[in-house]
Each structure stands twice: as C-alpha cells, then as structure tokens.
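Example (one chain per record):
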Amino acid sequence: PVRPSVEAGRVGWTMAPLDGNSMREAAGRLLGEHDFSSFRASACQARSPVKTLRRIELSRRSTFDATYWRFEFEADAFLHHMIRNIMGCLVAIGQRRRAPDWITTVLEARDRDAAAPTFAPDGLYFLGPVYNARWGLPARTAAYDWLP
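Predicted structure:
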C-alpha cells in the first residue's frame, strides 16, 4: 500500500490491512458508561473521565487502489484526545497486533500507559453535536454527508 498523497492530512493512514470484525468486536466493548482515563490526554482538563459512548459505527469502502474505513463515534461528551487514543487501540487490534478483548484490559486499567500510541489527527472530523429532541435543535449539521 502507498500513502495517499492527494488526501494527505485529510485521512488517517496505516500500511497494514485492518480486520473489521476484530475492530467492531473491540469497539462494542467500549459502548456504555465507562471511566475513559486510559484514553485521555495528560493535558485533559475534564472534571470527570466518566463518559457514555452511545454509538461506534465502522464502515468500509474500497476503491480500485485503496480501502477506506470510516469510524463514527457518538457520546455524551469526549475527553481530550479520547477518540485519537481509542483509534490507536482499534488500529492495533485491526492489524492483529492485539486481540479484541485487550481493549477491555486497557479500559479497566484507567492508565494511559496501558493503551496504544495516539493515532494521528489526520481524518478526524467533528461532524456536529447530537442534541436531545426535547430541545428542538437540528439533529445533524450540513457537513455530515460530504465528509470522507
């Protein structure tokens, strides 16, 4: 595989192919309310590391020369670098360097040193907030559908 030059800085990249089933299994273990201390940056200023991950969706798209993965996360709030640190773990699992149940060990450790290295910010997009319907605010931003 060759690093995509045209999309440099717009997508994350890894040389090894990814096992979607293993990543989905691991991602499922993160759903719900947890202490995400293992996935927060040392500079994180959040008062509490307890967050609720409501949804993690992985989708795959192949072109003639590349395979693209899209990861969508929905939570009540995020910690500093939380998604980049989760992505580092999911990529390690997807590359079969770790088993899917390893992510539970990382989560329970509540220690950043237990997790994989932080994934690059390339390709990380905030698609917008999801508000409770009772507030009468739009569910999604216009940017949602056109991002990679």
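Caption: The longest strand covers residues 50-62.
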